[in-house]
Design brief:
Blueprint (H helix, E strand, L loop, with lengths): L2 H8 L14 H12 L10 E5 L3 H10 L5 H4 L2 E8 L4 H15 L7 H40 L3 E5 L4 H7 L7 E10 L17 H4 L4
Antiparallel strand pairs: 1-2, 2-4, 3-4
Helix pairs in contact: 2-6, 3-7, 5-6
Bound molecules: flavin mononucleotide.
Flavin mononucleotide binds next to strand 3.
């Protein structure tokens, strides 16, 4: 079996983390880099990732996260947020990044800017917000696969009150909103979820080949 498939079978949404085991600096850096490298539609990256290290903040987030213990008990905790407003300023920031990264004059990117503004504008305000949420879930998937391939446990969670999270983390004033969260670290030896069989539909139920 490929290493990747082995990792995907090994991973599960961890319910109980070992509070004594911590990710190394290298492991954290690798996981962060996997988020940064995630693909997004048009490459616009309408996201921001908040690594919450502060113990008191994590306690508050746990309260706003239906008291899920992973929020405080895992080695690390990351909130995946998106831009609240996907608009021309986001496009401008991206176009400037393209120019700088590829060392080309920003004036030569007028066509790209117009195309992106057209595409974003067509979505409407709410549609663009939903679009941004879809992009951050791609980053979540990349993070979960990376963690599994490195033998790092993860608990993706959307059971939380985003409005409270946004206030606690000061995201509202930064034009951001929280979408999904991930606890990362190492499973406790007595996590009851470790030995539960993975529940997935059979191949023929989820694939159609035409
Ligand atoms: C986007 C997302 C949100 C989730 N939210 C929660 C959550 O709030 N609490 C929780 O205990 N599990 C949560 N889960 C875990 C799922 O229940 C779990 O991934 C699913 O049952 C499949 O099991 P497995 O990941 O262990 O293979 C979430 C998973 C995903 C992908």
């Amino acid at each position: 079996m490929s290493d990747m498939l082995k990792a995907l079978k090994w991973r599960y949404a961890t319910k109980k983390f070992d509070t004594t085991k911590k990710l190394s600096e290298e492991q954290l850096a690798l996981l962060k880099e996997s988020l940064r490298l995630s693909p997004s539609s048009f490459g616009l990256q309408p996201w921001h990732f908040i690594v919450v290290e502060d113990v008191e903040l994590r306690k508050k987030l746990r309260t706003a996260g239906y008291d899920q213990p992973q929020i405080t008990d895992a080695s690390h905790f990351i909130v995946l947020a998106t831009e609240k407003n996907v608009d021309a300023s986001l496009v401008e920031k991206f176009v400037e990044n393209v120019a700088t990264t590829r060392n080309i004059p920003v004036e030569s990117l007028t066509g790209l800017r117009d195309m992106l503004n057209g595409a974003v504008g067509m979505k409407g305000e709410e549609g663009a917000r939903e679009w941004a949420a879809r992009q951050v879930y791609i980053a979540l998937g990349v993070l979960l696969a990376t963690a599994a391939s490195e033998g790092i446990d993860a608990a993706p969670m959307e059971g939380f009150d985003p409005e409270q999270f946004d206030v606690i983390l000061g995201l509202t004033e930064r034009g951001l909103t929280s979408r999904v969260m991930v606890a990362l670290g190492f499973r406790a030896s007595d996590d009851p979820a470790t030995d539960m069989a993975k529940v997935r539909y059979a191949e023929e139920q989820v694939f159609t080949t035409m």
